[in-house]
Amino acid sequence: MRLYTFIITDMSAKSARFTNENNFHTFCEHIPLRKIALCSKYFGCILFLCHVSTYTQKRGNVIKKLFIDMDNTLVNTLPVLNAESQNVQKYNVKKPDQIPGIFRHLKPLPGAIDGVKELAKHFDLYILSTAPWENPSSWQDKIEWLTDYFGNDVDSPFYKKVVMTHKKDLVKMPNSLLLDDRPYHGASDWDDAKIDSFWLQYGYDDQLVWTEKLVPFLISIANANEGTLRKDIALANKTNQYQLRHATTEFKKESWE
Q: Which pairs with CB-CB distance under 8 Å and at least 24 residues apart come from 195-204?
């Protein structure tokens, strides 16, 4: 079954859902990509979720879904925001993540682009990111950043597979992982044994980063077939015993946050 969804929602999570592909695309035509920033300003939390099936099959096997956060997981965001934290008055904003255009030309984390391309051979990949509420340009800037590094056609692992929301838990689904550095915006809620989803905290174990053992570890999860995602993760982690996430949802924020 495929669910075609464009959700414009407030924090109560009201939404518009479409099970008919033609109706979905007709709706989306009224809100083109370049208008995403405008929509974020006036409508609140936007989930842009296209062609997400409840399962994906290849060679007769179910392929696991991997949702990847952007800031500080895929993109080297924090050093730039910290550097600009003393300059916010110049831009007439309260926080550096509210500076217009600041998300547009950030650098990827070392190894991230090649790592994603390798993971695309083993997972059904999606982006699951939050854009600052008071920075409408950031919604569009993130899409354009992905286009710069991965393209904007069917060869991109994230083509029409981008979700932006302040409620990441709305997207969790069975047999799916979220790779995210922070527990906020519903990321920690992905650790849900009932539906068999999991939150892997990027960088909590210093080996689970792009330049170390993250990619082979994730591939070992993708290739495991123990019956549940949690059993697959346990098998993949049996030898190295990586620390997969903080035991609680505690996280040290920056002084400006």
A: 196/228, 196/229, 196/230, 197/172, 197/173, 197/229, 198/229, 198/230, 198/233, 199/245, 200/244, 200/245, 201/244, 201/245, 201/246, 202/69, 202/72, 202/73, 203/72, 203/73, 204/243, 204/244, 204/245, 204/246
Lookup: tokens for 39:
């929509």
Task: For the chain, 257 residues long, give each residue's pLDDT as a single digit of tens.
Answer: 333 333 333 333 334 443 444 443 444 444 444 444 444 443 334 445 444 554 555 434 679 999 999 999 999 999 999 999 999 999 999 999 999 999 999 999 999 999 999 999 999 999 999 999 999 999 999 999 999 999 999 999 999 999 999 999 999 999 999 999 999 999 999 999 999 999 999 999 999 999 999 999 999 999 999 999 999 999 999 999 999 998 777 777 777 67
Question: Mind telling me the catalytic residues?
Answer: 69, 71
Long-range contacts of 186-192 (CB under 8 A, 24+ apart): 187/69, 188/245, 188/249, 191/245
* Tally of CB atoms within 10 A around 12: 9
Q: Give start and end residues of each alpha helix (H) in 76-228.
A: 78-84, 88-91, 112-119, 137-150, 214-223
The CATH architecture annotation of domain 56-236 reads 3-Layer(aba) Sandwich (3.40)
With H, G, I as helix, E, B as strand and everything else as coil, classify residue 145.
Answer: helix
Which pair of structure tokens corresponds to residue 37?
A: 């920033």
